[in-house]
Design goal:
It contains 13 helices and four strands. The chain is mainly alpha-helical. It has one domain: NCX, central ion-binding region (A middle domain of Talin 1), CATH 1.20.1420. The strands form two sheets. Strands 1-4 form a two-stranded antiparallel ribbon. A two-stranded antiparallel ribbon has the order 2-3. The longest helix is centred in the middle third of the chain and has 33 residues. The N and C termini lie far apart (60 Å).
């Protein structure tokens, strides 16, 4: 039953996010809001709507560690799992401005959250500061992006868009998000109790994958339209929103300081920063993510989840596994960066 409730909640939450994004986009077009504004704000916020709903509901029901685990785990899942799968399907083209602006912002946001949470908690002022930074990020986007990265056929508002229908879709989506989030938190809490797992581990794994379904849906949709640059843009934008908006709202809504488990500050948040930093050299390779790089992302995610499972179970070989990670993943990451730098120097010499 807990698994069924969790699956039902994730399904309802995904439908709610889809309805919310579609309704908001229709309303924006009906009000003659430029498509670039729609894509950089509504779509990014919409694909993170699941994380917002689950995180706020987790805090309201006194499960804050689940909220933190969900946010951190979703970002790691977005890059390593979703981008990895997408790159295996087809190499992903990355826009130049994405590498030079959005990815550095994602790196800075990751480091900022790690520095704020290093003392084991996030206070309301820090949450408010994160929200302010998110607002500044969106304002900067409008200054930097002078052209839309979305389909040029959407340049003019659709005259058939009806505000009343759009508002109804937004309301329906918001209700489904609220309802689904309650099922998700309840089901995940029961799963943690039955499996003997901590709430933060459930948030880092099951909830992280579940609430990343909207990003996966957007990725599949973009791949079908051969808009591979939008795949990376959606993931990077969603990660920034998760860190600054979702975590900011969660810390602001919490009546007391949002406590961050030691395991998250000592392992998961550093992994989050490493993943963010790894994006920069990888994406610089011909401004694309190749299939072999996607397979490396998937390998890293498998290793990460395996470590969480072994750590949770208190496996006797955990220390050996940690050594194996350092002996294999470290050199492989250095080799990956070396190949990227060599390729970039080659392009510079032949350019």
């Amino acid at each position: 039953m807990p698994l069924l409730i969790l699956a039902l909640g994730l399904g309802i939450t995904t439908l709610g996010a889809e309805s919310f994004v579609a309704g908001a986009s229709r309303l924006a077009r009906a009000l003659s809001i430029p498509p670039v504004v729609i894509g950089l704000t509504i779509v990014a916020l919409g694909t993170s709507a699941s994380e917002i709903a689950v995180a706020l509901n987790a805090v309201a029901t006194d499960h804050p560690t689940m909220a933190v685990g969900n946010i951190v785990g979703s970002n790691i899942c977005n890059v390593l799992l979703i981008l990895g799968i997408a790159a295996l399907i087809t190499p992903l083209r990355v826009a130049d401005r994405l590498v030079r602006f959005d990815i550095p912002v994602m790196i800075l946001a990751s480091v900022l959250v790690f520095s704020m949470a290093y003392d084991g908690r996030l206070d309301r002022p820090e949450g408010i500061a994160s929200l302010i930074l998110a607002g500044l990020y969106f304002l900067a986007l409008f200054q930097v992006r002078s052209v839309s990265t979305f389909d040029d056929r959407e340049e003019s508002p659709r005259p058939t868009s009806r505000p009343a229908v759009a508002v109804a879709m937004i309301i329906a989506g918001a209700f489904l998000l609220y309802l689904g989030a309650r099922f998700v938190v309840s089901g995940a809490t029961d799963v943690a109790r039955v499996m003997g797992a901590s709430e933060v581990v459930v948030g880092l794994t099951i909830l992280a994958i579940g609430t990343s379904l909207p990003e996966l849906a957007a990725t599949v949709s973009s791949l079908r339209r051969a808009e591979t640059d939008l795949v990376v843009g959606n993931i990077v934008g969603s990660n920034v929103v998760n860190l600054l908006v979702v975590l900011g709202l969660t810390a602001t809504a919490s009546e007391t300081s949002l406590l961050i488990p030691v395991a998250v500050t000592s392992f998961d948040l550093p992994i989050l920063c490493v993943v963010a930093f790894a994006c920069l050299p990888v994406f610089f390779t011909n401004y694309a993510i190749e299939r072999w790089e996607g397979s490396v992302f998937l390998l890293y995610y498998t290793i990460y989840v395996a470590y969480l499972v072994l750590d949770q179970s208190g496996h006797v070989d955990l220390a050996l596994y940690r050594i194996a990670i350092l002996a294999f993943v470290g050199p492989l990451a250095m080799l990956t960066i070396a190949v990227v730098i060599r390729g970039r120097r080659h392009r510079t010499n032949t350019g």
